[in-house]
Design a protein that fits this description.
Radius of gyration: 13 Å
Strand content: over 45%
Number of helices: 0
Shape: globular
Order of helices and strands: EEEEEEEEEEE
Largest sheet: 7 strands, mixed
Helix content: under 10%
Amino acid sequence: VLLQASGGGSVQAGGSLTLSCAASGRTSSTVYMAWFRQAPGKERELIARIAWSDGNTAYADSVEGRFTISRINAKNTGYLEMSSLKPEDTAVYYCATEQLRSSGYDYWGQGTLVTVSS
C-alpha cells in the first residue's frame, strides 16, 4: 500500500486547510486510516482516525471540534479538514493505515507540512 499525502501549506491563525491522503495498491484490507502530526521537538501525535468500513471516527482532544476526518472509499482517499487553525497546529502531518490482522499502523504517507502563523 502506498499513501500519498498532500494539501499542506501556510495559513494564518483561524484559517482552514484540507489534507488528502490517496491510497493505492492493496487497499482492500484497510481497517483504519489515521492522521498523525509531529511538531518540532515533540513526539508524533495521533489526532484523528476513521474506520474504513463504517466511517466511525475518533479525535484527540487537541483537535476535537476543529478537525474532521473523512474518506471516500471509491477513491481510496482520506481527508482531514482543519478549521480554526492555531499556531500550535504547526507540524508535519502524516496519514497512515492499519491493515486487517495488524496490531499497528503499517503504511505511512510521506508527510505534509502545515504552518500556521499568528
